[in-house]
Amino acid sequence: QVQLDESGGGLVQAGGSLRLSCAASGRTFSNYIMAWFRQAPGKEREFVASSVGRTHRTYYADSVKGRFTISRDNAKSTVYLQMNSLKPEDTAVYYCAARDIGAQVFDSWGQGTQVTVSS
């Protein structure tokens, strides 16, 4: 497991932008698949985006494609989530997660950061 520390959440108006950061420590960052999930009040946690270790391949939920961008800096052991054209329905607690490429589940989670989008 790795320790994950998120930052960058806040309050923004609809149409605005935010960038979330997640700093990892503990093991070889480039070996990990890094992801962002979110959980809105009364809803289950859902996948947002992921980035695969050395290849930097990315995947997105349909609801954020074209608006959100996940990126990583392996030298800084940090993954980012750039969120543009934010909508009120993007309001949620956003969690950073990590799993080794060979693992089946995400076993490291950050504490979460609140993103609130006002209409």
Percent helix, as a range, is: under 10%
Total strands: the figure is: 11
Radius of gyration, in angstroms, nearest whole number = 13 Å
Largest sheet: 7 strands, mixed
Low-confidence stretches: none
Indicate the proportion of strand residues.
over 45%
Which structural class best describes the helix and strand composition?
mainly beta
N/C terminus separation: 38 Å
Shape: globular
Summed up, the helix count is: 0
Mean of pLDDT: 94
Order of helices and strands: EEEEEEEEEEE
Characterization of this structure:
- By secondary structure, the protein is mainly β.
- It has no helices and 11 strands.
- The strands form 2 sheets. Strands 2, 4, 5, 6, 9, 10 and 11 form a 7-stranded mixed sheet that branches.
- It is globular, with a radius of gyration of 13 Å.
Protein traits:
119 residues; mainly beta; 7-stranded mixed beta sheet; 4-stranded antiparallel beta sheet; 11 strands
Q: Could you give the topology of this structure?
A:
Blueprint: E1 3-7, E2 10-13, E3 18-25, E4 32-39, E5 46-52, E6 58-60, E7 68-73, E8 78-83, E9 92-100, E10 108-109, E11 113-118
Parallel strand pairs: 2-11
Antiparallel strand pairs: 1-3, 3-8, 4-5, 4-9, 5-6, 7-8, 9-10, 9-11
How do you describe this structure in short?
The protein is mainly beta and 119 residues long. It has strands at residues 3-7, 10-13, 18-25, 32-39, 46-52, 58-60, 68-73, 78-83, 92-100, 108-109, 113-118.
